[in-house]
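Researcher: Sequence recovery benchmark, item below. Answer with residues only.
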């Protein structure tokens, strides 16, 4: 079992930056692929980024602006978000997969809200 808890969301003007954190429980954190997803109001949840060992993946919409990283010693994964746009407004979720960055993702956090003002 893995329990996940996100933090770091908030309100930021367009062009600004935020860093989201996701703290995980469990002794085998480094064996899980970790991903970030987001869901905007009225839209489906979508993939944002994932990391697993040396592999990182990004959605085209965030490439060059967002960076995913992890600190296995702290059981934490981060999402650095730069050059934020109003369309980045969403609830952001972290998730863990025991099979790899393509998923399926077995464990999910409760989400943290990000709002980008124009």
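Model:
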């Amino acid at each position: 079992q893995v329990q996940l808890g996100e933090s770091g969301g908030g309100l930021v003007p367009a062009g600004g930056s935020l860093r989201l954190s996701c703290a995980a429980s469990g002794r085998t954190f480094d064996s899980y692929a970790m991903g970030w997803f987001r869901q905007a109001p009225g839209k489906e949840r979508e993939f944002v980024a994932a990391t697993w060992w040396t592999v990182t993946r990004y959605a085209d919409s965030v490439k060059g602006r967002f960076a995913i990283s992890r600190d296995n010693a702290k059981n934490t994964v981060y999402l650095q978000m730069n050059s934020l746009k109003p369309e980045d407004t969403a609830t952001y979720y972290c998730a863990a997969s025991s099979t790899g960055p393509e998923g399926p993702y077995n464990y999910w956090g409760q989400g943290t809200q990000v709002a980008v003002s124009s």
